[in-house]
Structure formats: C-alpha cells, structure tokens
Amino acid sequence: MQSFHEKLRCSWQKSGSLLCVGIDPDLERLPRGLAAAKKPFLDFGRAIVEATAPYVCAFKPQAAHFAAVGKENELAELIAFAKAHFPDIPVILDAKRGDVGSTARLYAREAFERYNADAVTVSPYLGKDSLEPYFAFRERGIVVLCRTSNPGSNWLQNRSEDGQPTYLRVAEKVREWDTAEQCMLVTGATYPDELAKVRAVVGSLPLLVPGIGAQGGSIQQVLKSGLDSDGVGLVISSSRAIIFADSGPEYANAAASAAHLAMQEINKYR
After folding, report:
1. Which residue in 96, 128, 197, 268 is the catalytic one?
2. Per-residue pLDDT, 1
C-alpha cells in the first residue's frame, strides 16, 4: 500500500513540478456561457484539470465553493474524473475540518469515502483526538493548518508559551503524530521566515504553501525557506491567478499557459 508521502514523491518526480492548482469555482466568475450549463462547476473543473495536469504535482478543489451552491455532487464527479484520468496526481480536498467524536468520523468518511480525495485539510486546534478518524485511513493524507497566510492568524498562531509560538508547537506535534507518512502542514507563502522555522522543526515533512499570486507571497523566498534536503517537500498552491486567467472561450488554454509559467517560475529558483 502506497503512503500519501510516497504518492507525493512520485508526483514530484514524474511531473518535475511543485505547483498545485486550486480549483475554486465561482458562478460570478465562470467563463461566459458556462454558468448556464447543466453542470457548470464540473465542466469548468474538468477543463481546468485537463489543461493544467502537465504542469502540476497536485490538485486542490475547495469544498465550500461547491457546497455553498449545492454542487457537492459535481465536486465528487470532478475528483472522480481527476483520479480516473490522472491517477498519479494527488487530489487534496480543501475543507479545513475540525471536530471530535462522531462528527470527526463523518468528516473523515466524507473526505475519503464520499469524495475519495487523497488528502484533506484539517484544523489541529481540538487536539489529536479530532484527527484520529483521519489517521484511520492509512493511505490518505492529513493536511494540518500550521502557519496560515492570512494576517488575522497572528494573534493565535504567533502566541508564545515558554518562548515558543503556537505554530511551531503544532509543527512539532504533527511530526510526532506522523507515524505512517500521512501528514502535511499548511504554511503560508506570506511568512517566509516562519516557513523556514517550520522546515527546521519538521525535517522532510511535506508543506502545502498557499499565498503566492493574489496574496503576494514570493516564490523565491518560499523555495529558499521551504525546500527539503532533496530539493522538493513543497506543494505550492495557486488558484485564481490560474483558473481565472481568462473569462472567454479560451479559458482552459489560458489556465494551461498560466500554470506552465508558474511551474517555470518555481523551477527557476529550485
């Protein structure tokens, strides 16, 4: 049985890329004419997946963008499409779940049974017992929020106890819990110094890095701070700058070009 880390390593090697495309469809920003389709999010998502697959190491559909408008079935169909046509590219469900008991078990089943995602984003702030149901799916990934890219996170994630900020305590604990190569940490591109500190704590543990593009994170700084000793270890996510590169009929080709450029920009500094 292949672990989630092994799947990531295979994807990095095969694709030659550290880029992850986030799939965050928005009815108001879909290409002209697509909003009237029977399954607009599925049609849009499939076109993006097909167009950008040569340039990515992962896909990251955002669950709320589908669920808020009743498109959960289209999300399930999109993930099934991606896994059927590009089985070597992991699909990370961006859901940021956090709960305990039966609710946590159902969230884990939702991610890994209903949607069949390879990994899901979760919050660690209810403790390890909130993550145990995800660990039970031994071949799936658990992507834990650590040092996120939004400015409002500082009050909690940078709060120090005994001189150590919360985000580093989270990093230490997740590395300790990761006994089956399942865990990743979310560490934003907007805080490269903190990213370097996380890398120093977790060794080769993979890091999901949002915050480039629209949020202003520097690719060069991310690579300097976050690459592991093998020159990989990062899944660098970009969404809007790629999927909404064009709103016309050539939107898929525009997304492919944007993804290709992003991959080249990342590889330039590796």
Report:
1. 96
2. 83
